[in-house]
Design goal:
Layout: E1 7-10, H1 19-28, E2 33-38, H2 53-62, E3 66-72, H3 86-106, E4 110-114, H4 124-144, E5 148-152, H5 165-174, E6 179-183, H6 184-189, H7 194-201, E7 205-210, H8 228-237, E8 244-246, H9 257-272
Parallel strand pairs: 1-2, 1-8, 2-3, 3-4, 4-5, 5-6, 6-7, 7-8
Helix pairs in contact: 2-3, 3-4
């Protein structure tokens, strides 16, 4: 089983609370490591500038925590890497460059990329090719900041372009230097298994969003049908060395995220046999 510092809290369900509240909860729950979702009001980023990452890093450090992963906001679909419109793609690339820059200021090692949106009435392969060209630029940008980009499949509610292992694998094959992030809820949505991901991508998997699920929605550990011990053991056996971020990304958790975070952590630890 992974050591404690490799289990990370995340702020995906803290939209209605300030960053300090999230940090206090994670410290109280015994986390040492966190992942930040880069969306307001926790952290703002746009195509032209970003919040002072050093100030964010100072708050995190004062809470006794370290942030290793940043997942920028993409669910609003305003920064599409897939579009045919060149000006729009340039705008999207600019946003992701800002995200990479603030991640470096915070001290992150990984920026997690989710490709959301996509036109259902246009050629999917062409849109994926547009994504590839943009990601090639961003991988080089990330390298300058000593950051790795990890692409994850998106929940279907956010788009159908990069939605499963097949599309993530295709993108990684076509973008040198791009890595993968495994989201266990999206894995269930796509009717895939950890074995599928390990066999296809192996050491290209550098980040994991660990969530219980029955149907692709994010659930508190113990309320879905996944076995966290089995998932972790298979990843560790395959040589996975990254962190496991607990993720609750559903509206049901937004009113009382601290309560559900505690239940989620307790359910995971019980499932891991701790």
């Amino acid at each position: 089983m992974p050591e404690q510092q490799r289990l990370a809290g995340s702020n995906f369900s803290y939209f209605c609370f300030p960053l300090n509240d999230f940090l206090e909860v994670q410290k109280r729950l015994g986390f040492e490591t966190i992942e930040l979702f880069g969306g307001s009001p926790q952290l703002w980023i746009d195509a032209y500038e970003h919040e002072d990452g050093k100030k964010i890093q100072k708050k995190i450090k004062e809470a006794g925590l370290v942030c290793l992963v940043l997942t920028p906001e993409t669910a609003a679909f305003q920064y599409p890497l897939w579009t045919e419109d060149e000006d729009w793609r340039v705008h999207a690339i600019s946003y992701w460059k800002q995200a990479i820059a603030v991640a470096a200021e915070i001290g992150c090692r990984i920026v997690c990329v989710t490709v959301t949106g996509g036109f259902l009435d246009q050629n999917m392969e062409k849109q994926l090719e547009n994504c590839c060209e943009c990601l090639k630029v961003l991988v080089k940008e990330a390298h300058l900041h000593r950051i790795q980009l990890a692409l994850e499949a998106a929940p279907l509610k956010y788009g159908e372009l990069v939605k499963d292992l097949k599309t993530v694998g295709w993108m990684i094959q076509n973008v040198p230097g791009l890595y993968a992030a495994l989201d266990t809820a999206v894995m269930i949505q796509a009717k895939e298994t950890v074995d599928d991901w390990v066999q296809a991508l192996g050491d290209r998997i550098i980040h994991v969003h660990l969530a219980d699920s029955c149907d692709g929605t994010y659930q508190v550990w113990g309320e879905g049908r996944l076995n966290p011990k089995e998932i972790v053991e298979k990843l560790e056996k395959a040589g996975y060395k990254g962190i496991y971020s607990l993720k609750l990304d559903e509206y049901d958790y937004y009113d009382e995220p601290a309560l559900f975070d505690e239940r989620n952590r307790n359910g995971l630890l019980e499932g891991l046999g701790r």
